[in-house]
Design brief:
Rossmann fold; nine-stranded mixed sheet; N-utilizing Substance Protein B Homolog, Chain A; 3 domains; rRNA (cytosine-C5-)-methyltransferase activity; Alpha-Beta Plaits; globular; RNA-binding; 446 residues; four-stranded antiparallel sheet; EC 2.1.1.176; transferase; methyltransferase; 13 strands
Length: 446
């Protein structure tokens, strides 16, 4: 059996894990591709990402090509058909190769007896592609959820929150994101690191502060100085947290909900001699925090702890600064995690808002008078962001908004100031810029 067929089978199994069993891509991909070579693994992953970005279109095509849905016991073949269509539509794989390898993959998913059906469906699409795509385009004009590849409930929320920008947001969500790096300025200036990249034949450009954008994706472990902690992978929007929080030397800082540790490391790189405590409730994800701290050769106290229940871990000493990157819907990073669109449910939002409120109130008690707390999410939904903060300010007497005063370095195109009197930043996902993020800086009155 060819490795090409193996990649198709793996992609089908990953899609089944996500769409049928509710597992995330970050869980399913390692589980289903561990046996594959790197190039084959990357191809399987690329198929899955593309299918999930445009899932409604693929499902519409399947419904046109088969008479009735496949039964649960052979449902993996449905996902194999999605894989076969994706190669022909979006992966620039010659039709004969896409069909042959996908048919061969039936044996690898234990559905050898359905090879004929898979072959017939994929060849039918090959013959009718122009007509089917024209009909799909016509239907999509009247069906925004189909045209923009988003579930209806999420599309309605985006339309309500951003009546002038929802199409831009949805389009950005469906495009592979750029790869952003953060230069450790304790080792290099951004200009100096750009020169190292150029010398290594790696095309890149500078962004805000210490951000650098690679022209193409690559194995980041091959970047100059990566293993020595001279550079890290972190989205441009996420890099703003340390600059906004502006911790000063010697301050006691809490990074709540810290995993995987990118912001923890950046805080320590950005300001010398900080006393940083990083907590997260997920012990497995805390392993990444330890790995990132070790690679960057910086130190922090790392605790497996519940940010909503400080009494179980807090030593009673107040913090000068708190970074609360709250659990959220992650609707600002869909372009990096397209499975979010199909795993998230409408009723999740109210539960997340309640959890955010609980954590924010708990963390506020740990802040010194005169200290600052930066509330952050990677969401674009107002309920989790500006509405959450407005409710907090309305009920907490000693909290006040602080204007975010850092320069945007000319990168403000995807910044929406929801209300200039409130001072928060809502960043929207942008094709050429950063992820969707929300930042709001609060200060405790003395």
């Amino acid at each position: 059996m060819s490795s090409a067929a193996g990649s198709r089978a793996a992609a089908a199994k990953i899609l089944q894990q996500v769409l049928q069993h509710g597992r995330s891509l970050s869980q399913a991909i390692p589980a289903e591709t561990a046996h594959l070579e790197p190039n084959t693994r990357a191809f399987a992953q690329a198929i899955c990402y593309q299918v999930l970005r445009q899932l409604p279109s693929y499902e519409w095509l399947i419904a046109k090509l088969i008479e009735k849905p496949l039964k649960t016991k052979v449902r993996v073949v449905h996902y194999l058909l999605l894989v076969g269509l994706c190669q022909q539509r979006d992966m620039r794989v010659p039709a004969h190769a896409a069909i042959a390898e996908t048919v061969e993959a039936c044996s690898l998913v234990r559905q050898k007896n359905l090879k004929g059906m898979v072959n017939a469906v994929l060849r039918s699409y090959q013959r009718q592609q122009a007509e089917l795509e024209a009909e799909l385009a016509a239907v999509s004009e009247k069906t925004p959820a189909l045209a923009y590849g988003h579930p209806g409930w999420l599309l309605k929320r985006l339309q309500a929150a951003y009546p002038q920008q929802w199409q831009v947001i949805c389009s950005a969500n469906n495009i592979a994101p750029p790869l952003w790096l953060r230069v450790n300025t304790q080792h290099h200036t951004p200009a100096a690191y750009l020169a190292k990249l150029e010398a290594a034949g790696i095309e890149a450009s500078s962004g805000d502060f210490s951000a650098i954008r690679l022209a193409q994706g690559m194995d980041v472990t091959q970047l100059p100085g990566f293993t020595e902690g001279h550079v890290s992978v972190q989205d441009r929007s996420a890099q703003l947290a340390a600059h906004i929080l502006a911790a000063e030397p010697g301050m006691r800082v809490l990074d709540a909900c810290a995993a995987p540790g990118g912001k923890t490391v950046h805080l320590l790189e950005h300001s010398e001699s900080l006393k940083v405590t990083a907590i997260d409730f997920d012990a497995d994800r805390l392993k990444r925090v330890h790995e990132n701290l070790q690679r960057a050769a910086v130190n922090a106290e790392v605790l497996c702890a519940d940010a909503a229940n400080p009494e179980s871990w807090w030593d009673g000493e107040l913090f000068d600064r708190i970074l609360l990157d709250a659990p959220c819907s992650a609707t600002g990073v869909i372009r990096r995690h397209p499975d979010i669109k199909w795993l998230r449910r409408a009723d999740d939002i109210a539960n997340l808002v309640a959890l955010q409120k609980q954590i924010l109130q708990a963390q506020w008690r740990l802040l010194k008078p005169g200290g600052c707390l930066l509330y952050a999410t990677c969401s674009v939904l107002p309920e989790e962001n500006i509405l959450q903060i407005q409710a907090f300010l309305a009920t907490v007497d000693d909290a006040e908004a602080v204007e975010i005063s850092i320069e945007k370095d000319g990168s403000g195109a995807n910044v929406v100031v929801e209300n200039s009197a409130i001072n928060g930043w809502q960043l929207l996902p942008d094709t050429d810029s950063g992820d969707g993020f929300f930042y709001f800086l609060l200060q405790k009155r003395k």
